[in-house]
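Practice problem: predict the structure.
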Amino acid sequence: WGAVESKESDVVSLTTTCESVEAVCVSCNDHIVRNNRRICLSTGCKHIYCDNCFKEWLESASLDNSLLPLRCCKQSLPPEFVTFWIKRLFNEVRASKLLLSMEEVYCVNKMYCPVETCSAFIDLDKVANTLDINLNFHC
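Answer:
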């Protein structure tokens, strides 16, 4: 998502590989063991999710925008964190579709096509000068 500067340190501080046999996914309650090399994700509030549950959460959110932005303990997960894991957990085609579906939610400056039959989302964060816009509407 173009408007948000990605900080590698933020992403790294919110991700982890399972170092402890005691790690338990807060969603499915499965024990995440180091030996089978399953990935777990630790959010800012320190809740841990297994890779499968986080992947299902992302899929659900792509179908239900009320789940966006993704939140844990009422804290929105940073777009950098979500983007990082989408790219890691999904193939390139599916990742592109998920990122596109979530772009609207995380976009700071947005508008919609003024053509009544279209209303397509337009990301103004990607437009250099919003006062001098020459937009090609999708309709």
